[in-house]
Specification:
- This protein has 2 domains: 4-179 and 331-395, Periplasmic binding protein-like II (D-Maltodextrin-Binding Protein, domain 2, 3-Layer(aba) Sandwich); 181-330 and 407-452, D-Maltodextrin-Binding Protein, domain 2.
- The chain is built from 20 helices and 12 strands.
- It has helices at 4-15, 74-90, 104-117, 130-136, 144-150, 159-164, 187-192, 203-217, 233-243, 260-274, 285-290, 304-310, 343-356, 359-369, 376-379, 382-390, 396-400, 409-412, 417-431, 435-457; strands at 64-70, 94-100, 123-127, 166-167, 170-171, 174-179, 181-186, 222-227, 279-282, 294-300, 315-318, 331-337.
- A 5-stranded mixed beta sheet has the order 2-1-3-12-6. It has a 5-stranded mixed beta sheet with strand order 9-8-10-7-11, with helices on both faces.
- Strand 4 and strand 5 form a beta hairpin.
- Helix 1 crosses helix 3 (104-117) and helix 19 runs antiparallel to helix 20.
- The protein is globular.
């Protein structure tokens, strides 16, 4: 059982909005759909968040009602609701009620508050950052026994994705809307500039292409758009740090962002923005890319569907550029069952998870959203392979996945770590501050905040 001290600290944070313990999910943001405004990964717009409710106990003859808190609005929210409706129509014993809670952060904050009020959902979507918080505080249910009872084999999940949700040999969090950042480029502009129809192999190659791109794009267009801390720039920059041979932190939560390699990565983007004048920071890089304000950007695979449908030009995607080596994090969200949910609702929630993992449902969700297919059977399904052949942009993340890795602990575990790194990056991108000074400040703050979580990690396995 969790100690009284840890639980009291956790619920106290919840009553304050959970800002200190769980702020910042992984890279995903509001990505425009065909109408230009629907969210993709985590959805801060595209639908009004519902007021959290708990399900009444089922009475004789009525289906067991399971409350599902989700984080997708707009186009992706419609896809989630279709899956929920299909599950409810497929049987009569369980009724899943989908309640949209807003972005990943908003969902996590509401979940923490609901724990304090003892009015929790049964199953919830949590990002690759926020689920760790609830795991550490022992609020999630291990799923292995429930999978066995349901006759569900979780080994069908793609190994790197299910492994991220496995701790101490047990499964706590299953992949659903998993993503990586990928490189997006305007194929029409590339053709006009006489450039090859591919992404740059390195960041230096992108810089070399910059003059030609800006020549054909006009004075109001830049080569590349970075984004803000609020929009998960620390998720995107995680890849840059690894590409330069650095890291945000080690597994023991010691900050490494102020070391030479990470500083070099920060200096490169500073020069790219302020000296080369080829890049800039924007609130929403997806919108700017669609509107022709930048020739290229980095964005989640979960934004691919919205960007492709909204852009008035041919969209290309590619692996992230390299520097000394390749580097790319995973991101997105998965599903977890609450440990305090009634026993019968835990098993019912697992039945819903089992339904979502059917190949036809994974294929539908992947095609609808742009998220990677989370199971091997779906990835190899003829329908998925045919779709990849017809839409090669959607296969980029799948092919890039074996080269990815889980994010550094500074972003996954240190309270407010994402925003600490993200606001530091804003100082570089907007204020032109030297990376060594900025990252020294960031490292100091990360070290200070890490002390809060280190005590909670005792007795909780992270591998």
């Amino acid at each position: 059982m969790m100690s009284q001290l840890n639980r009291r600290r956790f619920l106290k944070a919840a009553s304050a909005g959970f800002g200190g313990l769980i702020l910042a999910a992984c890279g995903g943001t509001a990505a425009p759909s065909g109408s230009g405004g629907a969210p993709s990964d985590s959805a801060p717009s595209g639908g009004e968040a519902q007021q959290p409710t708990s399900a009444p106990a089922a009475t004789s003859g009525e289906p067991l009602r399971v409350i599902f808190w989700s984080s997708w609005g707009g186009n992706n929210g419609e896809g989630v609701q279709k899956l929920v409706d299909d599950f409810n129509a497929s049987q009569s014993e369980i009724f899943v009620e989908n309640q949209f809670q807003g972005s990943y952060e908003e969902t996590a904050q509401k979940l923490a508050a609901s724990m304090a009020a003892r009015q929790i959902p049964d199953i919830v979507s949590l990002s690759e950052v926020t689920w760790n918080r609830f795991y550490i505080n022992q609020s999630l249910q291990t799923l292995d026994d429930y999978f066995a009872k349901a006759g569900f084999d979780p080994s069908d999940y793609v190994d790197p994705l299910i492994n991220e949700g496995t701790r101490q040999g047990k499964i706590w969090w299953v992949p659903f809307a998993r993503s990586t950042p990928i490189f997006y480029y305007n194929r029409d502009l590339f053709q006009q500039a006489g450039l090859p129809d591919r992404g740059p192999e390195t960041w230096e190659e992108l810089r070399e292409w910059g003059a030609e791109l800006m020549k054909v794009g006009g004075e109001n267009m830049k080569v590349f758009a970075f984004t803000t801390g609020k929009n998960y720039n620390a998720w995107h920059f995680q890849g840059n740090v690894w590409q330069w041979g650095g890291a945000y932190s080690d597994k023991e939560l010691n900050a490494l962002i102020d070391e030479a390699e990470a500083v070099e990565a920060g200096e490169w983007v500073r020069r790219f923005v302020h000296e080369d004048k080829m890049a800039y920071m924007t609130e929403d890089q997806s919108t700017d890319f669609i509107n022709g304000l930048c020739a290229t950007t980095s964005q989640s695979t979960g934004s691919l569907g919205g960007i492709t449908s909204a852009a008035q030009f041919s969209v290309g995607t590619a692996f992230l550029p390299q520097h000394k080596q390749f580097g790319c994090p995973t991101g997105g969200a998965g599903l977890a069952v609450m440990a305090a949910a009634p026993e019968e609702k835990k098993q019912a929630a697992v039945e819903f998870i089992k339904f979502l993992a059917r190949p036809e449902n994974v294929v539908f969700w992947s095609k609808h959203s742009g998220y990677m297919p989370a199971t091997k059977s779906a990835r190899e399904a003829p329908e998925m392979q045919e779709y990849f052949a017809q839409n090669p942009n959607y296969k980029v993340a799948v092919e890039q996945l074996p080269k990815t890795q889980p994010q550094d602990t500074a972003r996954l575990l240190i309270p407010n770590g994402d925003q600490t790194i993200g606001t530091g990056l804003e100082r570089i991108l907007v204020n032109n501050e030297p990376a060594d000074k900025v990252f020294a400040d960031v490292a100091t703050q990360l070290e200070r905040d890490a002390e809060e979580i280190k005590n909670q990690l005792q007795g909780v396995g992270l591998s």
